[in-house]
TrEMBL record:
It comes from Marinomonas transparens. Keywords: 4Fe-4S, Iron, Iron-sulfur, Metal-binding, Molybdenum, Nitrate assimilation, Oxidoreductase. Belongs to the prokaryotic molybdopterin-containing oxidoreductase family. NasA/NapA/NarB subfamily. The chain holds residues 1 to 705 of 894 of the full protein. This is Nitrate reductase. GO terms for cellular component: membrane; oxidoreductase complex.
Length: 705
């Protein structure tokens, strides 16, 4: 038998590695069914352990195989009728905002596109939010404030070409392993390349760090506020760039001078030594080729947007943007967090990187879609959405490919919301998750290796995910289910898509519609893409406008931004500590994150025996001094209590955390080892600008059980 191999993309993190996938039955043990794609520019053949274990996760015994309504298997047409008639009913009685989608950075761009189109153009609500809100929403707003657009300036090559890499709030060694491997290899080739890690925890990423700044949780912005004023003192401002391409430098500098007046106050605010801050400041002033790489440790904060802008301010002031080996580089957590943003899959976006407030955008999108019921203002962001469900304002929610009962903060509130909701629709591959247990209607979805579409990784690179395996049982593609509901609601022509290629072509055409270079996101080259071209699409970085099929490697090389006057904006930033400071009653700070070999709520990685070997159960990392004082020993059971809830976890006594701080991974649920859900402890506090929850900081108390 000739083996059938597909080039596809890993469904886990935002690195977006290319994968060769061969049907396991065809390789017969001779070669691994999954290997790294040597031709993919994200990974050049590398894979981490999660990616290489993909074949172990595709034959789950817990697949959802049939549509279900109130626990009974039904036909697809019955399920679609149930959904459509309830949506029509609540929209008629309560208005369009009584309906909402809650989507996921795991679904494909084509799924996102039709969901966004149905809600914002045809039902008439902007209640389309996503678990990407929990991952990168602050970075999006930071970019928009500075550049007038949600544009990642850099690419992965810049990480290898820079001479100084500042990694802030990122444990890339575990969360973006292939990027970390690329960075480590670059550092080995060029030992003079410096790596600085800014993180309250000593993580695996610190293994390659020349300097680790173990700052107080949430104080990152002060480091960059100080670097801004230090850039003046060190004489490294790019005055021409500031004068020709930016606005607001003086105001931002004045604020930096006020907020971090000197080295002593900065070091004190951040809880590190003056010497450590000065080493970073000297490297910053000596090194033109600097990339700042930031991730969830920056974004998941009540002042996450300001942190992003504090970073961007430093790069603008020194002209370290739009150049090889330089730039502020936000790394997304999920495989398609960026693809969702491209179609407008956040409640505050309209479509194709246009917001509701973008002049002329509502009219433009309405004309393009020929939409009868355009939403006219922002919808509800994730945390607000689930609060509105509990308040009875949103009566039907369609949750797709995500597990908010485990991943959203204050999961007790999420449970109350879903119990109250009149119709909870859940599309998933899995039959049993904490969220499918709350569903009135369950829709069996195809998963990785079964469905076709596109995803966009952290460097703006659009890649294909390809289907090779048949859909099990009655599983269907998410885009198909959305289109069927849309047709039943009466929008037959607008949702007559037969293939994901047709959806992608319309998405591309919308991105270029009356654009003429006004918006950053333009993939107009693909507006008339045909089936063969779509099938053979090679990874490419957007923008890909008509006449530029090779895409765009790096943004802002000409110093022109997407603001009305084409100038980037400095944003004055006042560094703030997290909202909930510890108290005598709640003396510890809880930080959350990932372990190396698990992904999100383990619904896929929990199936791979190999992946549980690295860390087989949840834990709480506690500093030896605190453990000693509380009589806690390694592996003993500890009760963590916050004002929101409690969790029982085994202690891991470790110097990776500082005294007064604890860390625990987010993955485990009732489904796995009957473990406590850690998000249960996290308050619903969000950044007021981005709506992103402060998942890196909760005050708690600890006791030995
Ligand atoms: Fe998949 Fe990310 Fe690992 Fe690459 S680094 S193989 S995208 S999990």
């Amino acid at each position: 038998m000739t083996a059938t191999t597909s080039k596809t993309t890993c469904p886990y993190c935002g690195v977006g590695c290319g994968v060769n996938f061969t049907l396991p039955s065809q390789v017969g043990g001779a070669v691994p069914p999954v290997s790294g794609d040597n031709s993919h520019p994200a990974n050049f053949g590398r894979l981490c352990v999660k990616g290489s274990s993909l074949a172990q996760t595709i034959q789950s015994n817990d697949r959802l195989l049939s549509p279900m309504v109130e626990g009974h298997a039904v036909s697809w047409s019955e399920a679609i009728d149930t959904i459509s008639s309830k949506i029509a009913d609540v929209v008629k009685t309560h208005g369009p905002d009584a309906f909402a989608f809650y989507l996921s950075g795991q679904i494909l761009t084509e799924d996102y596109y039709v969901a966004n189109k149905l809600a914002k153009g045809f039902i008439g609500t902007a209640n389309v939010d996503t678990n990407s809100r929990l991952c990168m929403a602050s970075a999006v707003v930071g970019y928009k404030r500075a550049f007038g657009s949600d544009t990642v300036p850099c690419n992965y090559e810049d990480l290898e070409l820079c001479d100084l890499l500042i990694m802030v709030g990122s444990n890339a060694a575990w969360t973006h392993p292939v990027l970390y491997q690329r960075i480590a290899a670059a550092k080995q080739r060029r030992p003079n390349m410096k790596v600085v890690v800014v993180d309250p925890r000593k993580t695996a990423t610190c293994d390659i760090a020349d300097l680790h700044l173990a700052i107080n949780p949430g104080t990152d912005a002060a480091i960059f506020s100080f670097l801004l004023q230090h850039s003046v003192q060190a004489g490294i401002l790019d005055s021409d760039f500031i004068a020709d391409h930016t606005n607001g430098f003086k105001e931002a500098l004045n604020q930096a001078n006020e907020s971090t007046p000197n080295l002593i106050s900065t070091a004190d605010f951040c809880g590190v030594s003056e010497q450590e801050v000065m080493i970073l400041a000297n490297w910053w002033s000596d090194t033109a080729k600097t990339v700042t790489f930031y991730s969830q440790g920056v974004n998941q904060s009540s002042s996450g947007v300001d942190k992003c802008n504090a970073i961007i301010n430093c790069h603008l002031a020194t002209g370290r943007i739009g150049k090889e080996g330089a730039g502020p580089f936000s790394i997304t957590g999920q495989p398609n967090a960026m693809g969702g943003r491209e179609v407008g899959g956040l409640a505050n976006q309209l479509a194709a990187h246009m917001d509701f407030a973008t002049p002329g955008a509502q009219d433009l999108v309405q004309r393009f879609w020929q939409a009868p019921n355009m939403a006219t203002e922002n919808g509800l962001k994730a945390v607000d959405l689930f609060q509105a469900i509990e308040e009875g304002k949103v009566k039907v929610v369609w949750i797709m490919s995500t597990n908010p009962m485990v991943s959203l903060p204050d999961t007790a509130q999420v449970r109350r919301a879903l119990e109250k909701c009149e119709l909870v629709i859940v599309s998933d591959c899995k039959a049993h998750t904490d969220t499918t247990a709350m569903a009135d209607v369950l829709l069996p979805a195809t998963g990785w290796s079964e469905k076709d579409g596109t995803v966009t990784n952290s460097e703006r690179r659009i890649s294909r995910q390809r289907g090779l395996l048949p859909a099990p049982g009655e599983a269907k593609h998410d885009w198909w289910a959305i289109c069927e509901v849309a047709k039943t609601l009466g929008f037959r022509d607008a949702f007559a898509f037969r293939t994901p290629c047709e959806i992608f072509a319309e998405h591309a055409a919308l991105s270029a519609f009356e654009n003429n270079g006004k918006r950053d996101f333009d993939i107009g080259h693909f507006s008339s893409i045909n089936k063969d071209e779509y099938e053979n699409l090679v990874p490419v970085q957007w923008p890909v406008p008509k006449g530029r099929p090779e895409g765009t490697k790096r943004m802002f090389e000409d110093g022109r931004f997407f603001t009305p006057d084409s100038r980037a904006r400095f944003i004055p930033v006042t560094p703030k500590k997290p909202v909930n400071a510890p108290t005598s009653e709640w003396p510890f700070v809880l930080n959350t994150g990932r372990v190396r070999d698990q992904w999100h709520t383990m619904t896929r990685t929990g199936d791979a025996a190999l992946l549980t070997k690295h860390t087989d159960q949840p834990y709480v990392e506690i500093h030896p001094k605190d453990a000693n004082q509380l009589g806690i020993e390694d592996k003993t059971l500890v009760r963590l209590t916050s004002p929101q809830g409690e969790a029982l976890l085994k202690a891991k006594v470790s110097r990776a955390v500082s005294p007064g701080n604890v860390f625990t991974p987010i993955h485990w649920t009732q489904q796995f080892a009957n473990a406590s859900v850690v998000s249960n402890l996290i308050p619903s506090l969000v950044d007021p600008l981005s709506g992103q929850p402060e998942s890196k900081h909760a005050r708690i108390k600890l006791e030995a059980v």
